[in-house]
Amino acid sequence: GLIFYDTKVTVMNRVLNATVQRTADHAAPEITLDPLEIVGGEIRSSENSYFCQAARQLGCVPSSQLCVKLASGGDPTYAFNIRFTGEEVHGTSGSFRHFLWQVCKELQSSSLSLLLLCPSSAVNKNKGKYILTPSPITYAEEQLFHFFGQLLGIAIRADVPLPLDLLPSFWKTLVGEPLDPDVDLQEADILTYNYVKKFENISDETELEALCAEIASQHLAMESPDCPNKPCCKFTYLSLTGEEVELCPRGRHIPVGWENKDVYAAAIRSLRMRELQTPECMTAVRAGLGSIIPLQLLTTLTPLEMELRTCGLPYINLEFLKAHTMYQVGLMETDQHIEFFWSALEMFTQEELCKFIKFACNQERIPFTCPCKDGGPDTAHVPP
């Protein structure tokens, strides 16, 4: 917290340029994607998605081939080139940016099961934010999480911010910071947070009975074995993916009572914290990221800084855009039609501005900082 973000990025950029493994005289790996597989917007099976098509083809490419020089100038070196079947595309920039945009849409849709909408969004908190899906993973899914990590690194080297909306708990776990059992639980699953708080704040047995009766009315509790008419909860809870899990061995047979209510609340909290950390998935993501950028760099970054470096800002800052706009020869900032242009953009909503940026340069977000501050002849920003 003692070092400015810009300073960290400058150091990070130097390290990234010092760890380049594919030089200019090596041809870039090329993958071929079939746009017809995802025609109509509905992906019939996840295997047809751009994400899985790319993961399959890049699985045989050594990761050193994807470690390229940092973006600078108009059309930088990209980790790989993309050819769309049946389409003629000039240059490599547009199709690469379009690919990253499309992949982020797929990751945040029901077609791929790597990310899960956080439960809090059901009650309008952190709407549209995602977490890694916490479940035991197969070898194939592990490969996909590994590729997801590689994509984060590839986007950092290309300086193309990914339009991903992930909860802070994801970025915390990625940079190796511990989660806060209160703050992070509340962010991700406010209903479970409130449920746990109710059990923690009960002052007598009558309140506990009333709470169990309330839960029983929502079909979460069974009757107590000792007193058949008295509702009680058992040591089970729903996981984030919707399965009922036992919070301890034989949990289905252990009723929650006055003596063990705190143990019950703590067990639910630790279940959720374990699900938010998703150690198996995160290990695969970090391994993928580490094959593209040195993981030691993450020790200097806060979770928010890591998110900014990877995903940019989710809104478009027009002043930043104006400061980094290049005018063709013969055009002036004071020309009437240029002034009309900016005043039209000022009337746009954020959603319309994102669409405009997507139209202009095939990505929805612009980088948070600009390498042209570093001076040097070829540091015009990407995209100009």
UniProtKB/TrEMBL annotation:
Q: Which Gene3D superfamilies match?
A: Hect, E3 ligase catalytic domain, Hect, E3 ligase catalytic domains
Mind telling me which residue stretches traverse the membrane in this protein?
none
Q: Which UniProt keywords apply?
A: Ligase, Transferase, Ubl conjugation pathway
The lineage's top-level taxon is Eukaryota
- InterPro entries membership: HECT_dom, Hect_E3_ubiquitin_ligase, HECTD4
The molecular function terms of the Gene Ontology recorded here are: ligase activity; ubiquitin-protein transferase activity
Which Pfam family, giving just one, matches this sequence?
A: HECT
| UniProt domain HECT: residue ranges | 82-368
One biological process term in Gene Ontology: glucose homeostasis
Family matches, as PANTHER family? E3 UBIQUITIN-PROTEIN LIGASE HECTD4-RELATED
This chain belongs to the protein called HECD4 ligase
Q: Species lineage, top-down? A: Eukaryota, Metazoa, Chordata, Craniata, Vertebrata
